Amino acid sequence: MYIQFQQYKLRSTKWEDIVSRIQPMHEKGLAMVAQDHLNPQNRELRLEPDDIWQLLGGREGLKRMRKNADLLVNLAAYVQRWNFEEAVIIAERIRQDSMIVKRAVFMIQLHMLLKKASPRVPFHMQQAAASYYLMTQRLLALYETCQYVRYPALAAAL
User: Fold this and answer.
1) Residue 143 has pLDDT above 60, yes or no
2) Considering only 33-37, 57-61, 118-122, which range has the smallest mean pLDDT?
């Protein structure tokens, strides 16, 4: 029932409306944190926790990342109208990445709420950044191949 309602809601929403609700992220900072997590070097972590926090935009950046995750899933699902075979696979990957982002942000917020210092928080920040980064890259690649007319507007919004 929930999925059917979400699909109905998505059908009645214009693509431009979804894109306009995307909140800007610090693209370079996000990419730095994600690359640090996805491509480890000799030193496992090159970035310190305070640096990661700043590069992601702090509490506000995490809130934006969490809200944008749902919008990116909707944008991936939107492409299924034109290219179901490819879009359904990528949309599922993006949906799973979205769940990782939300779980990681929730864990960070929980530690902040409890005012509990945890060595896991930096890893949650990196995990959220890496998953969000992969979501944006997958979505851009999907639009570049399936909806190239809308690609420039999407790239500008992300």
Assistant:
1) yes
2) 118-122
Q: Which H or E element spans position 148?
A: none
Q: How many CB atoms lie within 10 A of CB 96?
A: 14
pLDDT at position 84 is 78
- Structure-token pair, residue 125: 């920040």
pLDDT tens-digit readout, 101-133: 999 999 999 988 887 777 788 899 999 999 999
Among residues 14, 54, 55, 49, the alpha carbon closest in space to that of 32 is found at: 55
Buried b (16+ CB within 10 A) or exposed e, 43-74: eeeebeeebbbebbbeeebbebbbebbbbbbb
Q: Residue 3: pLDDT above 50? A: no
* CB atoms closer than 10 angstroms to residue 104: 25
Name the residue ranges covered by the structural domains of the chain: 2-157
Give me the half-sphere count of Cα atoms (radius 13 Å) on the Cβ side of residue 158: 23
Hey, what are 133's tokens? 């980064």
The C-alpha torsion from 70 through 62 and 29 to 40, rounded to 10°, is: -90
| Amino acid found at 126 | Q
